[in-house]
Amino acid sequence: xxxxxxxxxxxxxxxxxxxPGHTLATITDKISEIVLxxxxxxxxxxxxxxxxxxxxxxxxxxxxxxxxxxxxxxxGNNVPVGWAFDIINFVWWIGIGHAGxxxxxxxxxxxxxxxxxxxxxxxxxxxxxxxxxGMYPLLHTGRPWLAYxxxxxxxxxxxxxxxxxPLVWDVFAVSTYxxxxxxxxxxGLIPDLATLRDRAKHKAVKLFYGMLAMGWRNAASHWDRYExxxxxxxxxxxxxxxxxxxxxxxxxxxGILPGWHTTVFPxxxxxxxxxxxxxxxxxxxxxxxxxxxxxxFITEKHLDVMxxxxxxxxxxxxxxxxxxxxxxxxxxxxxxxxxxxxxxTGPYAWTYWALILTNCTIPQLFWYGPARRNIxxxxxxxxxxxxGMWLERFVIIVTSLHRDFLPASWGHYAPTVxxxxxxxxxxxxFLFSFFLFVRVLPMIAMFEMxxxxxxxxxxxxxxxxKHGGSHH
Amino acid sequence: MNPQLEAKLGKIQKVGLALGVLGLIAGGxxxxxxxxxxxxxxxFAFWFPLGLCLGSLGFxxxxxxxxxxxxxxxxxQLEASIRTLPLMVLFFLPILVAAWTHPGAGETAHNEGSxxxxxxxxxxxxxxxxxxxxxxxxxxxxYLNIEFWTGRAILxxxxxxxxxxxxxxxxxxxxxxxxxxxxxxxxxISGPGIVxxxxxxxxxxxxxxxxxxxxxxxxxxxxxFIASQGLSVLAFGVLFSSWxxxxxxxxxxAKPNLFHDLGTLMFALTMFWAYVSFSQFLIIWSANLAEETxxxxxxxxxxxxxxxxxxxxxxxxxxxxxxxxxxxxxxxTLVPKVAILVLLMRFVDTYWQIxxxxxxxxxxxxxxxxxxVGLTGIWLWFYVGRLKAAPITTKQHDExxxxxxxxxx
Lengths: 472, 409
What we know:
The structure holds 2 protein chains of 2 kinds.
Chain A: H1 7-15, H2 24-36, H3 44-70, H4 85-109, H5 116-140, H6 166-199, H7 203-212, H8 220-253, H9 265-292, H10 300-330, H11 334-345, H12 349-361, H13 369-372, H14 375-402, H15 417-440, H16 446-450
Helix pairs in contact in A: 3-15, 4-5, 4-8, 4-9, 4-14, 5-6, 5-15, 6-7, 6-8, 8-9, 9-10, 9-14, 10-11, 11-12, 12-14
Chain B: H1 3-33, H2 35-66, H3 69-82, H4 85-100, H5 128-133, H6 135-140, H7 146-177, H8 180-208, H9 221-243, H10 250-253, H11 256-287, H12 293-299, H13 304-324, H14 326-330, H15 335-354, H16 367-388, H17 395-408
């Protein structure tokens, strides 16, 4: 196809959310093939990623063993920096999960059809990221087998959690989030699991997907209930996008420590979470798109929209940073002012400036249209944001804690090898789970993609909102 | 223009003008009697039309960037609202005068409610004697001084005007010439424009409202004002669309779908406003710091607690619950009733934000009713005038309607 055909056609192709020429069959073939391919024919890249993930899993196992046998003293956090990698990584992972919920719930309610080809993978990412996040507070208790003490239940010790503590709210927020995300993801998978059951050749594979599909027969009544369930789950998930990271931000903002206690934290954390989440979606989807040749489903339009989301949320985060600087001075509080000076010029100043570079400066590249459709630019910026959002939590947590009100209690923090191995271990766990998912479950929602094809006859309730999509 | 619509708009304009003139005459009398009260009520009244005007600017830019039918249907209304900006400059003048002048010796007695003492109408930091006595105000002087404050106000208005009139002009050019370059221009303005709007609006909220209590500070403050503006615009959009829904050309598109979309957005923003307002409260309550809590202490005592509670119930729970129901959102006679409640609560919210800085107890003055009615009336009159000055629907809107009709046949 020539690039010099007339403008309108060009424009249409650029804006397509599925490449032209696809039929109901080609979509199902293409996506289910990735899963139903015999093990030996799996691409080499997949084995490589799985290998990295497995090494990380081993590292995680070793670290957790060491931690449980020795105690949390193997980590570098100690007074005055009582919280460090454990909470930095907890917040980082929780944030990454948010893109999945935003894409699957909010964009569904907003009838944004472009979400279809990325929502499944993003939701899977949410679940694995939340699992990684959950490990940190559980292991930070030092005795994870007693973690159920965090829950309020009548007990012989007469002990109750402190309900005014945001950490207790976290227990509820995160566990609700994990449960709802898992249900939403699984519900969405059912019709596709049935497709895999029907297409599988091997008996064991058939049985495996058959059990997971829970008797789905494509009956009209099934679809009817499915649609209702999806809408209800989307409705429940929507407030969770805001609430989870808001509660996480209360962990800091509800305290009095300068650098933590500022009122804009909740929306600024939520925007940061979406920022981090979309960056991770891009980081994972760009290589997958190349490896599995998914260019027809994850089109330039998708990349463009995701880049715009990154740009917008990055600007909100920058707004938060700017307000923190202004208010630190405007407040007139010497502690707030010192916090600012320490951030900008103290021993950890490099983290702050690196954060400004990675989170605020580099994403500005996306003002330039062609950069939003350039794979390398997208990958570069998404990696930059992955690093930047990690640095943001480091700046907030460590830089604020290491020099608080009393100079006599100031200290320095440095992570130990076990801090790093735990972090690398969770990354390994994440990669392992994600690539396992890519191999055994359809990473793009087949039945939803089929609805985008004109032949499906689905005009959608939103035909009055966009160009209609289905005229010939 | 269709005569039925013209008659209806004329009627709205007349009512607006009548209320406006009455309100302003009352304001004049009030000014002669009690200038301090006049300025305080004016500051409160000023925020409502300002919210409609600037919130419309924000929405127009967001819509240029994201698209969607709801925005095309109310595009002209939003543009007319943006074009009331010159009126906002006029409305700002009394606040400017209040900042530059000082009460005489006998007039300060009216200021007994404020916990700041000194010779000022609205902003304690405008009294240089008081600034000298206060460590905090001296510290903030490089920002809170009358020259810089005025300079910033001019800058905000220049930014708003450049964005607003730039957008309106590009849209008009597109309709005149059909050249898609002008459509692109609206996007080029809107991208950076939305950033500028957020920044300017945040600092305008700091300057014009938060600095009336200059010891207090909150990074969330600007976001709350922006959420409130968005809510006013949507509620007004619902109300206005329902007023004119049986006249051509509104008849063609002011249908259940439009009200549903606007109602859903109103629902979302009601939640967002409650979320940011409650977050600010929770964070301050939880930390319990002496430099922050006074702001809430004065607002939850001496009668103000009732106002605060009404915000929780009628500002959040009631509209939230009503807007959950699809039947209400789609009904062009029911959803405007919710919109009226939402608009009313915007007044209550602003009153609760601004007035306790000057009065310890809840004791509304008659100017607190007369001036909001007056300013909003004048605004409505001017707004309808701007609306009449351009065709009711935009080219893109007509195209969208045609495309829809074509796809149905």
